Amino acid sequence: MKKISAKLIALFSAGVLLLTGCTGGGSSDSGSSSSGLALGQAQGAVVNADGLIDYSALSEEELNALYEKEPAYGQTITVNYTGSLCPVALPVAKYLGFVEDEGIESFEFVQISGDAARDALASGNLTVAIGFLSDWLLYYQNGEEVVSTLALHSGCASAATLTDSEYDGFEKGMRIGVAGGIGGLFHNIGLRFVNHDGFTADDFTWVALDAGTLLAALQEGQVDAIVASDELIYNFVDAGYTKIIRSQDYDPDFEGEVCCSLGFSKDFVEKNPVTVYKITRAVYRASKWLEESEENREQAVDLLIDQQYISCTREMGIELINLLHYGFGTKELIGTTNVIGQEYKDLGLLPQDFDLSNAEEQFLVKYDLTKIE
């Protein structure tokens, strides 16, 4: 198993930035379209004093009339399917009728995730995708035509060691295995964990592992800790193999942050602002419903098992879904983008001259969600 030093990681990251032609500041264009409307704003919707798009200025009749004129009206909306509980608000939005309430007749799931989902979104082969905000932010700098409209939930990654390990937290010199590649999502989350604990990347050896080999690498002593998705980590914990030493779910320094967001291609948003708002509103209503009660979350697990959307046991599904918080608004979407962006700049994952305010205007569709019931 090849171990990669932190210094090599730094060189790798710098090379990626050079190869992608990143200039650091991104586009100099504002978030407004050629019509003078903000990204995601339809004619008749207003931008309030907080800079948020308020669709309540339109009646439902007016909104539907605009919707019927858009290219996406009557077309199938394709949504990425991962088979996990992470994007739970999307199937809930469909199966509980929130999508149908918006007049969207065809809402179909496509089994695709990760980089492939983001690429399909950018190329127009997928309408809607869920993605890690911390992952997508790194692609914003390169002009990726993917934008986020809604913060979905808290979480959802953790670090763990073996149950009988001497390590109860990160310590200098540890070998940390990360699911996926160096420079990938879980490596970057691991960098945030150790950074919050006062360490630098160079204090550790980082090892890229396939998700299926993480536990074996721990048990064989090839790594001292692992960083991966909660669904994987908590299965190890439930089986008695590991203990959690760091988590985005309940550690106070990650409180208020969101993990995943709802994404569209910028081109689709510009051509179909009302469609995008309707989809976002349906998913937001589902997210609020999930946050309302544990009973609702248990009902969601039962629903998804019945629909064969997830394959975990009911007990594990309930444990995982109750780790997360839902119903976040635009404030948390903006706040998390800026927190992660600044930390990525501090870590060298984003260049120092990367313009976070420009990223906010270019890659976030900022709705006023406070009037949605």
Description:
This protein has 373 residues and is an alpha/beta fold. It folds into 2 domains: 4-12 and 157-247, 3-Layer(aba) Sandwich (D-Maltodextrin-Binding Protein, domain 2), CATH 3.40.190; 31-155 and 257-363, D-Maltodextrin-Binding Protein, domain 2 (3-Layer(aba) Sandwich), CATH 3.40.190.10. It has helices at 6-19, 60-67, 89-95, 98-101, 114-123, 133-140, 185-196, 214-219, 230-238, 266-271, 273-292, 294-306, 314-321, 330-347, 356-363; strands at 4-5, 46-47, 53-54, 77-81, 107-111, 129-132, 146-153, 157-162, 175-179, 205-209, 225-229, 242-247, 260-265. Helix 11 packs across helix 12 (294-306) and helix 12 (294-306) crosses helix 13 (314-321). The chain is globular and about 65 Å long. The model is unreliable at 1-32 (pLDDT under 50).
Q: What's the average pLDDT?
A: 87
Portion in strands:
15-25%
CATH level 3 topology of the largest domain: D-Maltodextrin-Binding Protein, domain 2
Q: Return the CATH architecture of the largest domain.
A: 3-Layer(aba) Sandwich
Low-confidence region ranges:
1-32
Tally of distinct domains: 2
Q: Kindly state the number of beta strands.
A: 13
How is the largest sheet built, in terms of strand order?
1-10-9-11-8-12
Q: Sum up the overall morphology in one term.
A: globular
Number of helix segments? 15
User: Can you summarize the main beta sheet?
Assistant: 6 strands, mixed
Name the helicity range.
40-55%
CATH class descriptor name of the largest domain: Alpha Beta
